[in-house]
Specification:
Distance between the termini: 38 Å
Number of strands: 9
Order of helices and strands: EHEHEHEHEEHEHHEEH
Number of helices: 8
Helix content: 25-40%
CATH architecture: Alpha-Beta Complex
CATH topology: Spore Coat Polysaccharide Biosynthesis Protein SpsA, Chain A
Length: 235
């Protein structure tokens, strides 16, 4: 299995089908053995049914009975994956699946490759509202201070990892919601894995469910908590 594509999905009934069509067409054109895993995070709508409709084309559906958060959904998907490489991507394809071509060469020298909206070669074609951008930049500065230094954008949902490294890291992740990215990168660094940050195309989704105030505060709290949990685990 050359690559596993893991997609967390919550209330994505209107976007998931079109995204799966693009992903499957891209993977078919590349050739090689692959798998696509959709993790339905307890959606109250027909998100799971949309994913199940692609079963005859090789899409695997995993279901969480209750909404647990993006981190929990990705953890379930990554631990069920079998690929030599694991790509994490959002259901809305804010970063196009074709940008996998940009990330893959870096796996020769890095175990973790993250898409970025904040480096010089990134291409943000539709920006967030200014208040979201400012809060995102503030949050990232705090992330660099508290957890992961030297990375301009930890929160882009497009990430590629060596398969064994991905499964090893996700097995120990404790954050269920949006701060999973920070814990993932912090733990990767702690275990000696090199991280490459690569500019990607990104289009803001007006349907984003991330609250710039509530979720940012929750993420900061989660960062402090996972630092404490891992410290206790070292004793």
């Amino acid at each position: 299995m050359q690559i596993s594509v893991v997609i967390p999905a919550y209330k994505e009934v209107s976007r998931l089908g079109a995204s799966l069509e693009r992903i499957l067409a891209y993977l078919a054109a590349r050739g090689g053995e692959h798998e696509v895993l959709v993790v339905d995070d307890g959606s109250p709508d027909d998100t799971a049914e949309v994913a199940a409709g692609f079963a005859d084309r090789g899409v695997r559906l995993l279901r969480l009975e209750e909404n647990q958060g993006k981190g929990a959904a990705l953890r379930a998907g990554v631990l069920a994956s079998r690929g030599e490489r694991v790509l994490l991507t959002d259901a809305d394809l804010s970063t196009p699946i074709t940008d996998l071509d940009l990330l893959e060469p870096y796996l020769a020298t890095h175990a973790v490759v993250i898409g970025s909206r904040a480096v010089a070669d990134s291409n943000v074609t539709l920006r967030q509202p200014i208040y979201r951008e400012l809060m995102g930049k503030t949050f990232n500065k705090l992330v660099r201070l508290l957890a992961v230094r030297g990375l301009a954008d930890t929160q882009c949902g497009f990430k590629l990892l060596a398969g064994d490294v991905a499964r090893d890291l996700f097995a120990d992740l404790t954050v269920d919601r949006f701060a999973y990215d920070v814990e993932l990168l912090w733990l990767a660094r702690r275990r000696g894995h090199d991280i490459a940050e690569v500019g990607v195309t990104w289009v803001n989704s007006p349907q984003s469910r991330v609250s710039p105030v509530k979720d940012s505060l929750s993420m900061l709290w989660d960062i402090l908590r996972f630092r404490w949990r891992h410290r206790r685990g070292d004793r």
